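JOB MANIFEST
job_type = single_chain_structure
chain_count = 1
residues = 589
[input]
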Amino acid sequence: MKSQGLAAIVMISQFLWIPVAIYLSLLRGHGILLAIGMPLVVQSLLSYAIAIRRWHAVNNLISQSKDETHLPPQYPSLVPYVGSALSFVWDNAGFLRQATRYGGRLISSRISFLGFEIFAFQDRQTVAKVWKQTSLSSPISIFVYAMKYFFEIPENVLSVYRADTSGPFPKPHKDTNISPQARVDHITHYGFLQALSGPGWLPTTKRCMNALVSRLEDKGLSEEWTEFEDMSEFFKEWVGASLIESLFGPSLLRINPTFVKNIWVFDEGIPWLARGVPSFLRPSIYKARRAAIAQIRNWYLYAREHFDESYISSDGDGDPFWGSWLMRYRQKNLLPAEKHNDEVLSKLDLGLAWGVVGNTTPTSTLFAFHIFKDPTLLSRVREEIETSFGNQDLLDINPSELIKQPLLSSAYAEILRLFIDVFFMVTSAHKDVPLGSYHLPKGRIALINSGISHKDDSFWNTRKGEHPVTSFWAERFLIDPSDPLSGPVAPGVYKPPSREEPDRDDGGKAPYFSLKGTEGSWFPYGGGHSICPGRVLAKSAVLFVSVLLARDYDIEPLVERIETTNWRCGLGAEQIKHAIPFRIRKRRR
């Protein structure tokens, strides 16, 4: 009860300026205005006090009634209609942490937002159930938001996406009657699934590996130290360009040499676009976006003029003009979709290009920094690489084996846990959806934030406080069969089966990578049927970058630690606050 009383005091204290303002206004002779406004102020304060009381009552009720399904409790707000909009816009990270925590645990709540009601699901039981619901598998709601505010897709095209309730699966939902040309959800999802997680993943990864090796060689690094001002900028130019080339091919970057630069200027402006900031306040963002879109359309003309089926590589995927099966597929299937044309597709392809580099590139930077900053970890990573791949040529490494390396996989999962903060938006177009203690009504929007769950100190294993949730611990996702304090989940929260790891050559004695038990608490890619199809390509690229650097190069970061900000909360990788000077050289062998 003490914590509940303290929470109420904190909520009310935010509005103590109101009676002070009333008193000062009286001193200045504004009595007439106050006579009119006083009843409204008093009514708002009383309503707010009642809402706080109800907030505590409903949370206590839900915690005690395990077998009933409820709507999440309504989070108190002072001003009708406006609700929590101002708090969310001003500090969305801090506001959501407050609105989804009660009594020291993560909860779910309903948030009033400019006349709308948003369901914020954060307790891990509900989140895990969300991922299992096929009726919540369409990402259309978040797509529409991004297309409208980030990429300026016209309203007549947005209406096609809003109207598509057929779902992402090959067979349309039984309650819809959408024409094949208007099934944009399925057309988009199928292409991504085939290219990034299905048969296109391996050839795309191989192209990315080749680009990473050749672009790093082009920098002419030697066995003598070379200093650079910022690791982030180094990786943007190197890793970002390699990722773009792996999907879009070499022609896009050859005929548009400033494309990667435009992408990163646009990326820096995403938080402003998400907040609806107009062009006259941030003209450089809009200029870079227009330039990148024009460059993509210029590439369309070039590729159409020069491409022929005979140019498709022996793997059936790559080609020098369109770059990959995915881009040819989008020209063939998404371009003819209802209300689509070159202008629309070029904006959607800008979204694809940004999606490819926007999180994977900073993740590569953060991953490399943490490996090379810790000599012990670097030594262990090099040992794992040597044990698994020996003197094998880097380009002959099997990506399927690369992504199975336990220490690298654990460190990668930890980087995502610590630095990836994404909003996932779900909605059900056809029916109410039961989610254990709660339910999501038909047509309502639910928001889930990975950053909050990723730093839930009541869930994650800290090894008795030795590794706080706010710190990087490369071994957090490793389970050592001989160590009961190992593993990602705090002891007592999740009890693993007696033997959950697969049979291994080491007889089951070595530590192994595991995500078991984290389904509702670790979701940097989302989950279930709506999980990001590019997750395997992203992991392959980040791990290959680390293998390439750790095996063939020495790197010395010239700062002790990295600071990040909440400015990009909900938009992916946290923003690195300062430049990261470093020096690099080829390893002497």
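[summary]
The chain has two domains: 2-120, 140-458+516-586.
The CA atoms of residues 148 and 403 lie 35 Å apart.
exit_status = 0
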